[in-house]
Amino acid sequence: MKTARDYNKLLRDFPINQLLSANDLEQVRKAIELIFNQFKYIKQSGGDSYPNNRAILLMNALTQDLNEQLLKILSNFQIMHLDYPEFEALKKEIQSVLDLLFDKINEFRTMINNTRSKLDQTSNKVMDNIMKNLLKERLERIFVFRKHHHKFI
Predict the structure, then answer these.
(1) pLDDT tens figures, 135-148
(2) Domain residue limits, the chain
(3) 52 CB burial (10 A radius; 0-12, 13-18, 19+)
(4) What residues contact residue 79 under an 8 Å CB cut-off, 6+ apart?
């Protein structure tokens, strides 16, 4: 019963619906803030109430959901056809969301590393996969391409 109560402390009112229903990048930003505020319960408990390995798997699922939501939002834009000033504004907004996400993930990783228990090899691989975000890499290539294309014109 205590274990269920401790797990519930983290998962109660988990704001996943705010992320999944976000229609713009500002709503995604707010959802990221809310989600990572929930993760503070892991830190407060020293990692004892919710296992680190499960927290990492939850983080992995959240980043996948976040990537899907970003793709859904970005599909409303024709990034390659936007006027360059509009593209630059969108780029800054995307980068601020991704920077916030990776700052929060780094804080989470530090928090997990500071707990007493060591991570198994699978958890380390999952954390590495979270940090290697293919959507972020793809967007950065698009940003560079558009920048070079704009200079060429």
Answers:
(1) 888 899 999 998 89
(2) 2-152
(3) buried
(4) 87, 90, 142, 146
Amino acid at 7: Y
In the predicted model, residues of the chain with pLDDT beneath 70 are 6, 9-10, 41-49, 116-119
DSSP classification of residue 83: -
Question: What is the rounded distance in angstroms from the CA atom of residue 80 to the CA atom of residue 69?
Answer: 19
Determine the Cα–Cα distance for residues 1 and 129; give it in Å rounded to an integer.
33
Q: What is the DSSP string of 14-54?
A: -THHHHHT--SHHHHHHHHHHHHHHTHHHHHTTTSSS-HHH
- Which residue is listed with tokens 């390659």? 80
- Measured distance CA(118)–CA(96) in Å, rounded: 32
Helix (H, G, I), strand (E, B) or coil at 14: coil
